[in-house]
UniProtKB/TrEMBL annotation, chains A, B:
Pathway: Lipid metabolism; phospholipid metabolism. The keyword Cytoplasm applies. This is Phosphate acyltransferase. GO terms for molecular function: phosphate:acyl-[acyl carrier protein] acyltransferase activity. PANTHER family: FATTY ACID/PHOSPHOLIPID SYNTHESIS PROTEIN PLSX, PHOSPHATE ACYLTRANSFERASE. Its main location: cytoplasm. The keyword Transferase applies. Keywords: Acyltransferase, Cytoplasm, Lipid biosynthesis, Lipid metabolism, Phospholipid biosynthesis, Phospholipid metabolism, Transferase. Belongs to the PlsX family. GO terms for biological process: fatty acid biosynthetic process; phospholipid biosynthetic process. It comes from Flavihumibacter petaseus NBRC 106054. Homodimer. Probably interacts with PlsY.
Amino acid sequence: MTIGLDMMGGDFAPLEAVKGLQLYLSEPGAPANIFLLGDEAILRPLLATHMIPEDRIRVVHAPEVIGMHEHPTKALKEKQQSSIAVGFYLLSQGKIDAFISAGNTGAMLVGAHYSLKTIEGVMRPTISTIIPREDGRTGLLLDVGLNADCKPEHLNQFAVLGSLYARHILGIQQPRVGLINIGEEEGKGNILAQASYPLLKENNRIHFIGNVEGRDVLADKADVMVCEGFTGNIILKLAESFYEMTHRHSIRHEYLDRFNFEHYGGTPVLGINKPVIIGHGISRAPAFKNMLKLAAKMVKSDLFDQMQIAFRN
Amino acid sequence: MTIGLDMMGGDFAPLEAVKGLQLYLSEPGAPANIFLLGDEAILRPLLATHMIPEDRIRVVHAPEVIGMHEHPTKALKEKQQSSIAVGFYLLSQGKIDAFISAGNTGAMLVGAHYSLKTIEGVMRPTISTIIPREDGRTGLLLDVGLNADCKPEHLNQFAVLGSLYARHILGIQQPRVGLINIGEEEGKGNILAQASYPLLKENNRIHFIGNVEGRDVLADKADVMVCEGFTGNIILKLAESFYEMTHRHSIRHEYLDRFNFEHYGGTPVLGINKPVIIGHGISRAPAFKNMLKLAAKMVKSDLFDQMQIAFRN
């Protein structure tokens, strides 16, 4: 198994990416070999300093970098030697089995869209986030920003994609699906939520448990929570800001650590035919390590086969 | 000045309402006299126990109670002797200057809608919430659930209502208005946010500063944050749950206390011609006290005159 890692993506690249790689490779039984995409002249000394074993990696020279604020489509077109462009090329050609970057999110999404295929039957690929929870387990929230406006059918598909991810990656056998809403009973909510409820209720590919409110997001109510990407993105960023706020004010408590989103690595793009993981711009070594672990798990799992089967009909 | 207080509304009524009343009346210079709406036989002994001064209150017998889960319209129609129905009757007749209840939210909204007049020019009344902030100040978020689906014109009006409230009640001279969105730049977001941005930008009754993201909600970026009631309600309930979660896990810190929403009392309905404040079902004494203070401040302020002037043209 070979995973491509963008060494130039994120606010603390390439140093934290190298450190994350070191962490990953030092774990016993870590299955993947890694293709490192970036500027060879910058990477080589760093790899030597951190004693990265040569037999587990290969440096693929990609001298250009797409900046965090560049226009995604334009940058991908003009910088074909960038780490992101090279990563998607290798992935589309089957030279790597998964691709990870903490770089320009827009460029990652555009790259995934144009270089890879959407799974047949999927209307809209989606991005999700792991939601830390009070009970110590994790939930999945989707969409978190790729699809700002949605139709009920989209939310219904997100529920299937999220359930498959929860089962095959998070290890939850019968994931409970909740619809993010502003009331508990059926019939509550905005037009989208009202129209989505009956579709979810009748969908026999998922285990729908009804509406979940804002107060339930961090609680143990549903394993997979679906909404359009506008609400999902606001939830994600607000939840992230809680931990950062307590951290800034030196409020330390073991319990709060589970709300450190860095522990959860990046967010996979779901609905496309290969594993692509987008890291947070502020990713540090543990996030890079966790993204490598997640990518390896996705490659080894049945997830992609199961997604294809689910949407075939 | 006379404020009507529903003594039967909320999970801990009437005891916590009586205690809150006691707290309010014991503060020096508290300007309002209070009409207490509820079952006289239940209230009298409680008032005596808590030594509520007879000259500051009047008990208005309202023997019926609208339960927290009753259907609002049906309950209001059938229970005309309920504390909520009587409260709105007194308010509409000018016998009281403001009305407060921590009871059935739906019944409060229906009552406000049918008993009172919407300010001329206001398309949709709205409910807001005070948002505690990292810098120790408070922001205002609206709508938080009354209008689950909105048009850009509604958000534009919420911005004006929120700005007037921030100026005349929160004491912020030039409130900065932010549009809740999923990106910083103009053009980001869902269709509603994209269409609302130019309206807000061109609105010379407000001081618009652009988009605010989920991570900015608790930060010192904007004083008034506008969105449709779906997103707003999710934000409110998620933010409330964060404090409750730290509290449950015995994580105590002075800084976290400002996220105890109870300190902020209830949420006023804006866009109608009289002060109506809806309390949280879990309101305890400090919340009741704060709602009384807020109601008195609203009655004394220029808010209602200024709202009428703002929407006249």
